[in-house]
Amino acid sequence: MIEAKGDVLVWGPMHPSLMRSLEENYCVYRRWEIADFKHWARLQGDAIRAVVTSGVYGADNATLDQLPNLKVITSFGVGYDALDTAYLAGRGIQLSNTPEVLNNSVAETALSLMLCVSRRISEAERFVRAGKWLQAKFPLGNDLHGKTCGIVGLGKIGKTLARLVSALDMNVAYYRPSGPYADVPHTHYADLQALATAADYLVVIVPGGQETRHLINRQVMRALGPTSFLINVARGSVVDEAALVAALLESEIGGAALDVFEGEPHVPAELLEMDNVVLLPHIGSGTHETRQAMADLVFENLRAWFEKETLVTPVVLEGVPRES
Ligand code: 8YV
């Protein structure tokens, strides 16, 4: 049992075991239950030294402004594009995320989406449930083996996916504008459209944020072509969703399989109508085992910070001192 050491503001409902650990060890305030935050912050804001949030919730600067003694944010998830890192750096606020522990789950989700859209699994299941099998044969799908998986973002998750699809006898290619990795055997492309042209499956696994906003645009989709598929397990913002709807309506790509959306949980109505599109509710890391590991890592980061003012998995922010 850790001595209660600090006041922690939790942004939104978190994994149950994380909520339990937080409540057992810290003085927890639930932001989503505070009706008048300005009033609350006038009374309690000075005491808050830590915020716990997630990659999806993020934390807005206007609210953080009301926590003058905030020193650390521990975030659930590997992506932290919903946080303004320049703002955090400017205030000397440290940040942790949950890398590594979700590599396999997200890569498995990407592979599931590839299989699902390619072999038309969701569509085939709808066909059976609707009783259509009694009247007709289901149309054929496409093999993965022998095809090219083009990975946009060959980071840790991308490399895990590369390993999985290699075992399925796929060719692996990747996009990296700054040049090839020295220790990676896969085919490198510095040009995204060239990768899209070569790929049968273009899998997006880059971090979100301004730098990658609408990286996958209509030109990239046209380069991908009418028999190839777009898979997105990164962030909705990386794909120009209006362009994707248009490209699908014009049959410029063969189909899409998406775990993330620009305005999630809202999904464009046109996509809901399309049989060659697979839609998931952002479940990339959503397994019991992985979410538990993420929850544990968030807590370990918080504990390390309160005990030693260090973080287990810090995000290195420009301008933030490593030790305060
Ligand atoms: C989570 C994610 O769903 O890790 C990420 O960046 O998007 C997912 O693992 C998200 O952090 C919210 O729980």
Secondary-structure map with pairings?
Layout: E1 7-10, H1 16-25, E2 27-30, H2 37-44, E3 48-54, H3 61-64, E4 72-76, H4 85-91, E5 94-96, H5 103-118, H6 121-129, E6 148-152, H7 156-167, E7 171-175, E8 187-189, H8 192-198, E9 201-204, H9 218-224, E10 229-232, H10 241-249, E11 255-258, H11 269-272, E12 277-279, H12 288-308, E13 314-315
Parallel strand pairs: 1-2, 1-3, 3-4, 4-5, 6-7, 6-9, 7-8, 9-10, 10-11, 11-12
Antiparallel strand pairs: 5-13
Helix pairs in contact: 1-12, 5-7, 8-9
The structure holds 2-keto-D-gluconic acid.
Q: Specify the CATH architecture of the largest domain.
A: 3-Layer(aba) Sandwich
- DSSP summary, beta strand count: 13
Number of helices: 12
Question: What is the CATH topology assignment of the largest domain?
Answer: Rossmann fold
The small molecules bound here are: 2-keto-D-gluconic acid
The figure for the number of domains is 2
Between the first and last Cα atoms, what is the distance in angstroms? 26 Å
The main sheet orders its strands as 8-7-6-9-10-11-12
CATH superfamily of the largest domain: NAD(P)-binding Rossmann-like Domain
Biggest sheet overview: 7 strands, parallel
- Kindly name the structural category: alpha/beta
Order of helices and strands: EHEHEHEHEHHEHEEHEHEHEHEHE
Q: Globular, elongated, flat, extended or rod-shaped: what is the shape?
A: globular
Helical fraction equals: 25-40%
| CATH C-level of the largest domain | Alpha Beta
Mean pLDDT reading: 96
